[in-house]
TrEMBL record:
Entry-linked PANTHER family: FARNESYL DIPHOSPHATE SYNTHASE (PTHR43281:SF1)
Gene Ontology biological-process annotations: isoprenoid biosynthetic process
InterPro entries with a match to the protein in the record: Isoprenoid_synthase_dom_sf (IPR008949), Polyprenyl_synt (IPR000092), Polyprenyl_synt_CS (IPR033749)
Requisite cofactors: Mg(2+)
Keyword Ubl conjugation in annotation: no
Organism: Kitasatospora setae (strain ATCC 33774 / DSM 43861 / JCM 3304 / KCC A-0304 / NBRC 14216 / KM-6054) (Streptomyces setae)
Leading EC class: transferase
Protein origin, superkingdom: Bacteria
Protein name, per record: Putative polyprenyl diphosphate synthase
Amino acid sequence: MNDVLAAALSRAAGHQRRFEPRLAAHFDALADPAAGGGPELPGRGRFPARALELLRELSLRGGKRLRVALLHEAAALVTAGPVPGLDAAALSVELLHTHGLVHDDLIDDAPLRRGGPSTYYAYLAEFPDRPDTARALTVLAGDLAAFLAVRVLLGPGGPPPERALAMAAVVADAGAAAVGGQLLDLERDFPPLPDTAFLHEVTAYKSTGYSVLAPLRLGLLAAGADPAPYDRELRGYAEAVGVANQIHDDLLDLFGDQDALGKPLGTDLRAGRRSYLLLALEAAGIDPAGRTPDGLRARARAAGVEDALRAEAARHARRAADLAAGWEGRWRTEAVAFFTHLPAWSVTRDH
């Protein structure tokens, strides 16, 4: 790892350390009506409090907090000083991410997330004889996280009023795009077999929009800059990083370490998902059906599937780095360096 990349990762780790207690404090305030931390939730019954508790557990259980780092560094492109409302924006993008995780695990029938039970399986354990109730509660918990993501930008501690509505619109647009991407994601598992361009579009809408592009826009807006004149290049950077990330995620589904990932290997393959990995296996003439994970991994490696996927992910990462390097001279050097070197990490991580 070169020194510049190490410095970028150190900056990202610093953002993560500072954010964790703020996220915990936000959930504590939400659970305490007297704190005025958000919308008033019902005081009666067990279910509203339990939904908030499960959202808290999932949100605090782990995660790379890449969205938080991107948000802070996007603001740092403009200024080195403190930025009002940036903490609220960080809470917003992470709450929107929690919403996505809750619903994604329900759709995929995934038992684990971040080394613990998914929200859906937590509810199934509580209501083993009432799966319909477990599903309904999971949907509602995910919906709650989405509304909280917008609300945090419009309440106390949020950005200045002249920026709050624009920032809330970014989050609402990103959430709507992610739902559209999830719909497209389900469609890819129906004939005809999707091509790479189809998978790129799924990635752009389902995850890249709220994980990369929205934090970039939010950070610039919070710092007082209008992102609109730079939207095309910001989108290009986000999409390149997003595709690199997704190809690497698909690769880890077969070639990763289960303990590091916090979930079983081969989940998408067993479900027959039309992923970048599956397309690469098909291109190599390998049918994953009936193979053990170890056997499939050995066969795929021998056929060069792992190397091909790593090379393709690295190609998109280099494109993102080249785009960010072009920001030098317009924006602050230290933050530009962060965005230039971050894509290299996205295709070498183990989780």
